[in-house]
Amino acid sequence: MCLILPLRDPVERAHSHWRMEVARGNESLSFSEAIREGRARVARNGRVFTYVERGFYGAQLERLETCFPREQVSVC
């Protein structure tokens, strides 16, 4: 078995996430304001405002490697 992981550009992913939260009515700040507020908002509101944090792929890949051998994972 082999896992193929397509990773999005972190900036494009963050902006897309922000647009989704605006559409859902969860976000009232502009994109630049939301990014500047960053981790303080995440600490208060959990996963809703993890625009930047979800783009830190390294930590996610490290967790994945605890379940699957590196040779079975292909990142593109």
Strand order of the largest sheet: 1-2
Quick one: overall form? elongated
Number of helices: 3
Q: Outline the biggest β-sheet.
A: 2 strands, parallel
Q: What is the percentage of strand-forming residues?
A: 5-15%
Count of discrete domains: 1
The mean pLDDT is 90
Question: Mind telling me the C-alpha Rg?
Answer: 15 Å
What is the succession of H and E elements? EHHHE
Total strands: the figure is: 2
Give the SSE layout.
Blueprint: E1 3-5, H1 10-24, H2 31-45, H3 57-64, E2 73-75
Parallel strand pairs: 1-2
Describe this structure in words.
The chain is mostly helical. It has one domain. It contains three helices and two strands; from the N terminus they run E-H-H-H-E. A two-stranded parallel sheet has the order 1-2.
